[in-house]
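It is worth pausing here to work through a concrete case rather than discussing structure prediction in the abstract. The textbook approach is simple: state the sequence, then state the predicted structure, then interpret. We follow exactly that order.
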Amino acid sequence: MRQFTRKTGGYFREIVGGRYDTISVALVTLRQRISFVLVCFCIVNLAIVARIVYLSLQPRLSDHDRNIIQQQNANLVRADLFDRNGMILATSLPTVSVYANAKDVIDIDDAVEGLRKIFKDLNFRKVKQNLGGGKRFVWIKRHITPAQQEALLSLGIPGIYFINTERRIYPDRNLLSHVLGFTDVDNIGIAGVEYSENNRIIRNSEPVQLSVDIRLQHALRDELSAGVVEFNATGASGIIYEIETGEVLAMCSLPDFDPNQYAKTPPKNKFNKCTCAVMEPGSTAKIFTTAMALENGKVRLDSIFDVTVPLTVGRHHIKDFHPQNRPLTTEEIFKYSSNIGAARMALQVGGQIQKQFYQDLGMFVPVRLELPELQAPLYSKTWREPTIITVAYGYGIAVTPMHMVVGVASILNGGLVLPPTILKNKNADHKATKRIISEATSKKMVRLLRLVVEEGTSRKAEVSGYHVIGKTGTAEKLHGKTYNKNSNMCFFIGAFPTDQPKYLIFIMLDEPKANKNTFGFAAAGWNAAPVASRVIRRIGAILGVVPDKDE
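Step two, the predicted structure:
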């Protein structure tokens, strides 16, 4: 029994011992696995702590870089620009831009190579140089496409980040480029209305409404472009203006540019001839000379002046382009655009009154308009007899087209000088700065301007049914110290309808050439006047001016 027990007990101990050994092995294995997990967990936590410590020891972002990022992330929205009828002229679209934190870029060469695959137009030498500088904010690419963003994300380049930005868009491209201007890469206005009204556009979420009418702008630009081609001119400019309010309804300067691509535009295309080009106005200045003389009272419409003998100014002899070889009345002097007659009227009135008249018209200072591109006139500081004579027929003083428009509008609106505006309803109160002539003199000038279109040098400006009034002017361009007879600036300035002039038209062609249709002539009556006629024919119905049914 003992033997059995001994044997049995041994057998039991053998069996139990075997189980015990198996459980021990399992416990050891479990203990080892738990220890491995704990070690891994500790390593991960140590790595996180180490990274936190590393970042805490790094220098903080500079205030300058922080302001850049905050400004971009703020996604400041510029207000839309509308025309007078609510048509959108400029708007902003959300975009994404790319920047790098050079300290987070692990491999600069690898990063540059990855960027090269997506952005073909980058200056990669400069990008590599910037990344090597260790700055925490380096611009890579502004305003990328969604496809480019997706491709860049797929590369997973360390240190490359995205910022929400916005881009200014001009749907009509060149159409109103000199009026609207453009913004820089930071969406800040740097030209045109975008610059002059920048604070208002940024702070005001409501659209900014301009006085221009996009329909009139289309017509004006089309006809000016056609005129440049027809007469082989080097450029052109035009303005459509509401006489009673001073609102600019259209303004065009050629050549122009696409504000969406302003960085690629030649500087000459950004030059606004309407407000920056100072030029001698030629015979259009006779509007001011005649109005001044009639208002002064020393000259009447039936006053007679001897224009048979040229006037001598130093070494120069003042002659008429269309000599009549007989004494002329004031009315005839204006009708035939006599240089001699205009000079004699100015001499009779006197230089002091003439100078004051031009000063009251605002011809000695930059015009007041909501555009930054404004040029001051050029004039003689000593107003002596040669100045009196030359200014009388359009030389000796150089002004911008906008000066001429404001001046003639003041003659036609009853004699009140009203500042121009590019903003709708800016002059809603019709507040004039001063009176330049009486209403009676204004009406006389309207009759004279109608006579010029009916029988004088502006006949080609006539439009059936609209009774256009106006005056042409041809001024030789100054090259060095001498005038070039084969290089002219040709103008037409007029208005319609005659019974109550409401809309003023200004047309300028720069160095137009004669052709077979002008019979060899390059004067304004042969080029600027017909261009004006075509503009008026197109815009009359748009403006709601009903043609006279008798014509």
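Step three, interpretation. DSSP finds 18 helices and 20 strands in the chain. Confidence is low (pLDDT under 50) at residues 1-17, 53-64, 69-75.
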